[in-house]
Amino acid sequence: MQATNVDKFLNIARNFNIAGDILECIPYGKGHINSTFLLVAENNGVKSRYILQSVNTNVFKKPCEVMSNVLKVTRFLREKSENPESIMVLIPTLDGEAFFQGDDGNFWRVYSFVENSICLDMPETEEDFYQSAVAFGEFQRLLDDFPVDELFETIPNFHNTPKRFLDFLEAIKEDKCGRAISIKEEIQFYLDREDFCSVLYDANSEGKLPFRVTHNDTKMNNVMLDAKTRKPLCVIDLDTIMPGFSVTDFGDSIRFGASTAEEDEKDLSKVWLDLKLFECYTKGFLEGCGGLLSSNEIMLLPEGAKMMTLECGMRFLTDYLNGDTYFKTAYTDHNLVRSRTHIKLVQDMEKHWDEMKRIVKACI
Ligand code: ADP
Ligand code: GN1
Ligand code: MG
Q1: Average pLDDT, the chain
Q2: Atom 13 in ligand 2: which residue has the minimum CA distance?
Q3: Pocket test for ligand 1, best of 16, 33, 51 (most atoms within 8 A of CB)
Q4: 136-173: per-residue pLDDT in tens?
Q5: Residue 249: CB within 6 Å of ligand 2?
Q6: Ligand 2 in contact with 263 (CB < 6 A)?
Q7: Strands, E, within the chain: which ranges?
Q8: Within a 10 A sphere around the Cβ of 74, how many other Cβ atoms?
Q9: Of the residues 35, 217, 220, which should be mutated to test ligand 2's pocket, given the most ligand atoms within 8 Å of the CB?
Q10: What is the CA(237)–ligand 2 centre distance, in A?
């Protein structure tokens, strides 16, 4: 980071209610959306750490509504949870606000740092993945009686896969960067699965799959585990809490964490669905949900896994066609590479579909 930028970020951080001197501000984490920094402050010789984040307003068009959701949900969870210290703590500005708007128009917020924790891009053990599943399942259970009418929809149609499919068609039609010609096979893969895109919405119309208050971004690196015990400490990245399906929260974790490779692995021979991890997550999620889900919902967990993988892969390809304006990318074809791993995972799920169904049935 350039020195001038560091000064700018340090100055922004000084608008928050942080005791002592702010010493450092370093880019942090691997999120694809917001800009995240680690802050180090010192007060009377004691150092403390915080997370400073600028909310991505290209993605979250109404950041005030995002912050309203975050405040309401964290307050609700803190009152309800048996372990209130496990809930994210937002540090107010010096004026007592939830965020600070800089001169450049950017929206900034500060969270206290979840100490003594680890944040994984891939589970290191089956137990890690199981524990992340318990955390997201519990999160869903705790939010079961959250007053849904008080929530803003921070990204309209976020996991509306049929709508995502239409956005994909639009991107192909517009072909803003002239990239469509070189990715015909990838495009065809998603086009061939149009019918599948509506499976969860159809189940919802048939009364088999209710809308609940869900997290909607249940990647392994959105839950912090205790560095010593490896038990869940805290669910983070609360910007997309909105009405959604239980099975999509399950599914997003599977597409990210039950893959044998990272989301942007270039060597596709390394990418497949690890059925053992799929089973661990199923057990942990159901345990965390504690009897919340109906048997109809549970039987749709494999559909949730395939839907989230298909949808996310299609979103990466849509962004590639649109010129990489949504997800942060590190190199030119990054979104294409990400989309290809998702194609490989969907293919593998289709190959092991009966086994996935059997595993879920056995967990009921
Ligand atoms: P994004 O929406 O861009 O994914 P996140 O809120 O998930 O942003 O933050 C990005 C990363 O920063 C997380 O994956 C995690 O590693 C780290 N992080 C975020 N909040 C905290 C926190 N309160 N304590 C410790 N690390 C955090
Ligand atoms: C984004 O913010 P992050 O990195 O946790 C995205 C998710 C995608 C994910 C793909 C708000 O998650 O929907 O599944 O990247 N978040 C948003 O890794 O679009
Ligand atoms: Mg994140």
Answers
A1: 96
A2: 217
A3: 51
A4: 999 999 999 999 999 999 999 999 999 999 999 999 99
A5: no
A6: yes
A7: 21-27, 35-43, 46-55, 90-91, 100-101, 107-112, 117-118, 212-214, 223-226, 232-235, 242-244
A8: 18
A9: 217
A10: 9
CA of 34 to the centre of ligand 2 (A): 10
Q: Which of 69, 64, 112 is nearest to 91 (CA)?
A: 112
What is the Å distance from ligand 2's center to 140 Cα?
A: 18
Mean pLDDT on 75-99: 92
What are the Cα distances from residue 39, in Å, to 14, 16, 42, 53, 175?
Answer: 11, 11, 10, 10, 41
Of the candidates 122, 134, 117, the residue with the CA atom closest to the CA atom of residue 280: 134
Q: Is pLDDT at 286 greater than 60 in this prediction?
A: yes
pTM of the model: 0.96
Residue with tokens 């490989």: 344
pLDDT score of 1 more than 80: no
Q: How many CB atoms lie within 10 A of CB 125?
A: 12
Q: What 3-state DSSP class applies to 344?
A: helix
Q: Whose CA is nearest to atom 17 of ligand 2?
A: 33
Tokens at 93, concatenated: 């500005």
CA 33 to ligand 2 center in whole angstroms: 7
Distances (CA, A) of 239 to 51, 72, 147, 218: 15, 12, 17, 11
Structure tokens at 201: 């919405």
Mean pLDDT of 15-42: 94
Residue 217 CA, chain-centre distance (Å), reads 2
Question: In the block, which residue shows the tokens 């239980």?
Answer: 246
Give 243 Cα–ligand 3 centroid separation in angstroms. Answer: 18
